[in-house]
Every structure is written in structure tokens, then in C-alpha cells.
């Protein structure tokens, strides 16, 4: 027992004053290598949680919103370009991505406590979930939509008059953002009319 305590004391002394036991060069190189290993591991985990396989690994997502996505043009289309969950729900910019990941940690609590563990629970919460996500996209000017859809690359000659009018107006004035006109393009929308207000009113 004493030898274990002595060993722990020796390690503690080394951790508290490493320069007394190791050279500055060794500590610098060791710290650099440890930093690379930490960053590599962190980035690997971050990217692993940024895949459609990860997003649909729980039945709540696979059985509900993923099935919606499979019925839309974002999943299957003539060009063969497919949007995956992170394309629309995770920013590409690193700083915004980390902030979004921190926000998404609340979803882990939802999984643990089963807030949408059944189809009935999901449908009951669907309006709240959709409203929150639409508000997030409005607040960031549909940043994730613009990762793929950029006004600068749109060929207005190949769009309908209505689309040209809407896109050029939005481009000029910045009055609306993508989800204001393109709600429900990847998932079925619940009834978003405010409580107590008749639909269409």
C-alpha cells in the first residue's frame, strides 16, 4: 500500500513541476506531439458526428425526419447531387459548426429522456421542433442553404419568371431568406399557424 502511495506522490511531483525532471526541449516536443494527437482525435470525432449515418443512427431520426427527406428532391433528383442531414443542419464554417454542436448537445438529453421516442411523441413535438429550426435558419440568413445555393451562381435565364422575381428581389433588398419561401422542401411541415388562429388566417 505504501509503495502505491509513494508512486502516486512521485507522479504528482512530476506533474506539478515537470521542468525539474524533464528538459525544456523534451517538454516542448512532447507537448507538440500530444497536441497533434488531441487535435486529430477531436477532429475525427467531430467529423464522425457530421455524417448522415450518425444522424440517422437513432430510430427517432431514421423513422421520422429521414423518411420525409427520402421523398424529396434533396434526396433523389436528375442531377444526382444529394443533400445529407449535416449539409442543412450543420454550418460548414468551423466556428459556427462548434457553436451548433454545442447547441445540439441538448438533443442528447432528448434521446436519454425519450422526448420523441415514439411516433406519437414526435408528432406532438413536431411543430415546436420545426419552429425552432426555421427560426435558427432565419436568424443566420439561411447560411446552410447558401452552402450549396448561391445567388452569384444562379442562372436566372433558366428560372421561371416568378423565381427570378423572388430571387432578384431577395438579392437586392435582403428582405427574405431562403426558408421564407422554401419551407418544407426537405421535410413535411406541421401546421405552423399560431395557437388559436384559424388556418389561413
Assign an overall shape: elongated
> Are there runs of 5+ residues with pLDDT below 50, and where?
196-201
Q: Helix-strand pattern, N to C?
A: HHHHHHHHHHH
Main pleated sheet: none
Q: How many structural units, i.e. domains?
A: 2
Helices, by number, come to 11
Give the termini separation: 77 Å
Percent of residues in beta strands? under 5%
Q: Helical amount among residues, as a percent range?
A: 55-70%
Mean pLDDT across all residues, rounded?
85
Number of strands: 0
Q: What does the radius of gyration come to?
A: 25 Å
Classification by helices and strands: mainly alpha
Structural key phrases:
201 residues; mainly alpha; 60% helix; disordered C terminus
Please outline the helices and strands.
Elements: H1 2-16, H2 24-48, H3 52-55, H4 59-63, H5 65-69, H6 85-89, H7 94-113, H8 119-139, H9 143-146, H10 161-173, H11 178-181
